[in-house]
Amino acid sequence: MATTVLRIFSYLPNPRVWKALIAAELLGVHVEVVGDKPKNLGNWLWDFAARPLNEEEKVPDNPNARASRRGFTGTLYKTDEFLQTQPYGTVPAAFSPDGAIGVFESNSILRAVARAGSQDQGLYGRNGMDASRIDSFLDATLVFGREAQVYLLGVNDISTELHQRMRGAFEFFLEGVERALGNTEYLAGDELTIADIAFVCDFSQFMRERLMRDGLDAASLPLVSEGSEADYPRAFAHLQRLVQQAEFAQYLEPYTEHFLGQNTDKP
Ligand SMILES: N[C@@H](CCC(=O)N[C@@H](CS)C(=O)NCC(=O)O)C(=O)O
To answer: Can you tell me the distance from the alpha carbon of 242 to that of 108, in angstroms, rounded to the nearest whole number?
Structure first.
C-alpha cells in the first residue's frame, strides 16, 4: 500500500480534487479523500477529522456555525482549527497526514502531491526553472478558473458584463495554451506535468457551460465556448488525448463526454 501523503476534505465528485488524485496515481503515492455530495456538505463538520454532524449539532448556536462564502449557501459548520489551517475556509481542503499543516487552493494541493513523489518522474519538472515554468501555467489556470467559477455560479442569471468578462478570460487563457502547444508536446515542455493536469481539470469544468444553456438562452447570449474547437484545435486535441489516458479517464471521460464524446476515437 502506497504511503498516504495528504488528506483532502471536499464535496465529491470535484474536478479540483481529481487534480491531486491523478497526480497521486501517476506518482504511486496515496491521497486520502473524505467528503460527500455537494448538497450534503452543510451537514458535515468541516475539520481535519471531518464527519457528518448529529442532528443536535445542526443548530444556529453551534460555535462552528458560519455563513457560507462562495459556491455554497446557508450555514456551514467549520471548526476554529479548520480555519486556522484553512484560512479561506474553502474546499478542497488538504492536510498533512498529522493534520498540522493545511494546504488550500487545488493547484497548491496538486503541487503538494507532486512534491511528495520522486523528482525523477518529472511531474513537477526536473529542476527549479522547469518548476517555475510549470507554476506559470498553474497560475494562469487559476486566474481562468476563478473567472470560470464566477461565471458558472452566475450563468443562470447572466448579465452581458459577466458574459463579456468570461469571453475575454476564455480567449486570453486559450490563446496562451494554443501558442504553448505549438512549440511543445505538453504545456510546459516535452513531458506530462502538473500544468497539464490542472489544465485538463479546470478547462473541463468550464465546459460544463454547455450543459447550462438555459440562462444563456433566456438572456439571448451564446455559449462562451461556441465554436472554440476550430479556434483552438491544439488545446482541444491535447485535452482529448489526456482524457483518454487511464489515470485521467476514470474521472474525466464521463465528465467530458458531452463535448468530447462524439470525437473520442476508441479502439
Ligand atoms: N480556487 C479554489 C476554489 C475553492 C472554492 O472556492 N471552494 C468553494 C466551493 S466551490 C468553498 O469551499 N466555499 C466555502 C464557503 O462557501 O464557505 C481552488 O481551486 O481550490
So the answer is: 21
Cell of 156: 443562470
Beta-sheet pairing, 75-78 with 65-67:
antiparallel
31 Cα: distance to centroid of ligand 1 (angstroms): 19
Task: Please say if the pLDDT value at position 263 is more than 70.
Answer: no
- 47 neighbors 95 (Cβ within 8 angstroms): no
Going by CATH, does the domain composed of 4-116 fall within 3.40.30.10? yes
Fold of 124-263: Glutathione S-transferase Yfyf (Class Pi); Chain A, domain 2 (1.20.1050)
Query: CB of 119 closer than 6 A to ligand 1?
Result: no
Q: On the CB side of 216, how many CA atoms lie within 13 Å of its CA?
A: 19
For 225-235, what is each residue's pLDDT tens digit? 999 999 999 99
Neighbouring C-alpha atoms within 13 Å toward the C-beta of 116: 25
106 CB less than 6 Å from ligand 1? Answer: yes
Cα 38–143–85 angle (5° rounding)? 55
